[in-house]
Amino acid sequence: MNSADRLRKLPSVDGILKCGELADLRDRFAHPLLSEWVRAAVEACRQNLLNGAELDDDATRQFVLREVRLQAECDDGQLQRHVINATGILLHTNLGRAPLADRAIARMNDAAAYASVELNLQTGRRCRRGERAMKLLATLAGSDDALVVNNCAAATMLVLHGTAAGREVVISRGQLVEIGGGFRLPEVFAAAGVTLKEIGTTNRTYLHDYERAISENTGAVIRVHRSNFRQTGFVTEPSIQELAAMQRPADLPVIDDVGSGCIHDLTAFGLQEPTVSASVRAGANVTLFSGDKLFGGPQCGIIVGRQKWIDRLRSSPLMRAIRVDKLTLAALEATTEVHLSGNAFGELPLLKMLSKDLSAIRAECEAIVAALKSTHAALFVDVVECDAEIGGGSVPGFTISSCAIRVRGSADGTTFDPDAIAKRLRTGRPAILPRISEDALLLDLRTVADAEFPALTERLRAALAGCVSGGA
């Protein structure tokens, strides 16, 4: 059969679009998108035929339909939806970092319609955007006032531009970090319109280095928390207390980027992280941090500090470009209320996971393992101790003890493909994200909410079915 004869067997794009087998996809996807997939599938079939494939009319049709469904599955994998996090990484950046408290979710739902974003319902007059949330944040931090923008990088840019545009900003060389997405702090400085003035060395910077660097052209001094790595050994740098107390012009601000937004002392859990209130008490003029890390709220950059500097930043023209929306403000307000209520470890999912007792996690693992063994006896399923990570550029170098469900082939020769099971878990509903270590599938339950256990058990049971094959 020549090429022309083969190509006559190609189904038409319009015919595929109207066929009954794609009725479910027509209901779910927009016509232009589905048309694009069909055209791509027909073209793939065309190339297959030109390469010598011998397909009859029905085979070419089934080929195209199969290709369309594969593209639909790929699109579904890009859909933003709920994921059960079984990786053991509490602040998983790819999963949106901190899960929100029920109170924050309810407040966002309430604000999704018309909401009093810039309106005081008592007076009927316009008010400052997110005014109550700013007051709560200032109370929590012990500062004069607060300001919120869309992430901590934006907060850094706003603070640098608002305090020192066209001038120098002094920073220790050991704090010139690279943040997520490959953005480096010197690039943020340049974008903010300030000149970077590095002092000290990578591992040792002294207070006198800062004092000697200050000149008439100095606009600010900044201290940056190393969010995703630690320096140990022969290292020295001044504390924020020392920087705030050093001799400097009265109008020269000391800025403290504390990174993860830690509100509570976490040393009881073996974690060392600077707190926001400690920075304010130490005398920092401006303190900034992320909202979606240890603070446990939505993505945003939070700035607290002295009234003089917050007022200056609030009046910056950059504020309009980087302000947050009403849903972020609603979630942030509720999350701050939780911190102020004294029940943060009972309400905020992140802090609940972080503080959960290891024996409770082990018991939950054992219960799920017992349920799996009743239907998948051929597999070796057990409970293994492991280390969970905070993640998200927080508390670098520290881990938390945890337990995970481990699934692997059994000693009788039964084998399984952990990658295939992981894909089944990721692509089902609800999606589950495990991790693979030493050819075994691991599901760390420290990062799984109690309400998610039944769904995780059933999804894991279904994913294991059919993925097992007998060995020699």
Q: Low-confidence segments, ≥5 residues, pLDDT <50? A: none
> How large is the share of residues in beta strands?
15-25%
Helix count, per DSSP? 20
Approximate shape: globular
N/C terminus separation: 43 Å
What helical percentage do the residues reach?
40-55%
Sheet with the most strands, sense and barrel status: 7 strands, mixed
Walk me through this protein's architecture.
The chain starts with a helix and ends with a strand. The chain has 472 residues and is of the alpha/beta class. Helix content is 42%, strand content 17%. Helix 4 packs across helix 5 (57-78).
Give the SSE map.
Blueprint: H1 3-7, H2 13-18, H3 23-28, H4 31-50, H5 57-78, E1 83-85, H6 102-111, E2 119-120, E3 125-126, H7 131-141, E4 145-149, H8 152-164, E5 168-172, H9 185-191, E6 195-199, H10 207-213, E7 218-224, H11 240-245, E8 254-259, H12 276-282, E9 286-290, E10 301-305, H13 307-314, H14 318-322, H15 326-341, H16 344-347, H17 349-355, H18 358-373, E11 379-389, E12 399-409, E13 415-416, H19 418-427, E14 431-433, E15 435-437, E16 440-444, H20 453-464, E17 468-469
Parallel strand pairs: 1-14, 5-6, 5-7, 7-8, 8-9
Antiparallel strand pairs: 2-3, 4-10, 9-10, 11-12, 12-16, 13-17, 15-16
Helix pairs in contact: 4-5, 6-15, 7-15, 18-20, 19-20
